[in-house]
Amino acid sequence: MGKSPSAIAAFIEDIPSEKLRYFPTRQNTIYNTIYKDTNFRLDMQRMTSHTPPKHNLQVQVNNSVAISALRIAKGQSVAGPALVPNDDSWTPEEIRKELLCMIGLFRSML
Question: Could you tell me the superkingdom of the organism this chain comes from (predicted)?
Answer without folding.
Answer: Eukaryota
